[in-house]
Prior knowledge:
Two copies of one chain form a homodimer.
Chain A: E1 14-22, H1 24-34, H2 43-47, H3 58-72, E2 84-85, E3 87-90, E4 98-110, E5 118-128, E6 134-145
Antiparallel strand pairs in A: 1-4, 3-6, 4-5, 5-6
Amino acid sequence: MPKRHWEDFKPGTVASYGPRLVTREEIVAFAAEFDPQPMHLDEAAGAATLLGGLAASGWHSCCILMRMIADGFINETHSMGAPGVDEVRWLRPLRPGTQVRVRTTVLETRAPNSRPEFGFVRCFFEMIDEHDSVLTTMTSPLMIRRREAGARP
Amino acid sequence: MPKRHWEDFKPGTVASYGPRLVTREEIVAFAAEFDPQPMHLDEAAGAATLLGGLAASGWHSCCILMRMIADGFINETHSMGAPGVDEVRWLRPLRPGTQVRVRTTVLETRAPNSRPEFGFVRCFFEMIDEHDSVLTTMTSPLMIRRREAGARP
C-alpha cells in the first residue's frame, strides 16, 4: 500500500480504529508521571469527585487516542504533524477495564496557497467505549503532504 | 498553607512554574508509547520535516505542561478536573536538552448558577524555553471547588 497524501482525504469520510483495552495499571502509571491528581491515582479519591471513581487523566485519553490514530492511519500517511488542537472535550470518565475504539471523521480539507507542499485535513475524533458511549472528542487540523505541490483538486 | 478555592483566583493573575529540563530519553520514550511518528523518534527523520530535527510530540509538551502545573498549583488547589481543552497551539518544536518553564495567566473566573459547588477558572498556559521563546500555548477551563457553595463574590 502506498502512503496516502492530502489528496486522498475526502470530507465526510468516516473510519474506525481499535479496539484497545485500557488497564488500571496504565491509568495509574500515566497519572503518576504526568497528572498526579488523586482522582487519577486512587479509587477512593476518584469516588469523592465528579468522576465517581478512579478514571484516567484526560491527557491520557488524548495520548491513547493519538496512539490509536498513529497506528490506524497516520503512520500510513505522509503526515507533517499538526499546528495544534482546536478543541478537546472529556465527556465521560475513562475507567479501568474499558475497551475503546476511535472513530475519525474528515471535516474539511484545505490547501493554503502560501504552503504548496502540504494541505490541512481537519478531523473530528471520538473515543468510544464498548457500550457506544462517546468518552472524549477532539478536533484537530492535520498537516499532510500533497501528492503534487500546489495541486488544487 | 490551606488549599486554594475558586474564590482565590483573580483574572489577570500571572504565575510561573518550573524550570524543568526535557531530555532526549524522555522525548523518545514518550513518542514510542503514544506518538510513534518518525520525527519524534529519530534525528534524521525529524530533520527531513518542518520540525528541522528531533522534537517532542506535541502531546508530550501538553503532558509535561500538565505535570508542571499539577506540581505548581493544581495539587494545592481544590481541583475538580476540567471539561476539556479549548485550544492548543504547538508554535515551536520542543527539542532535547531544552529547559522549560510554564507561565499561567488567569483569563476569567465564572461560577455557573446550575452548579453551586464549583466555578470555572479559565487559564492561558505558555510553555517557554530558556531563550524566552514560547513553544506551546494552551487554553483550558479548570473546575475548582467554591469555598462557599453558591457564593458569588
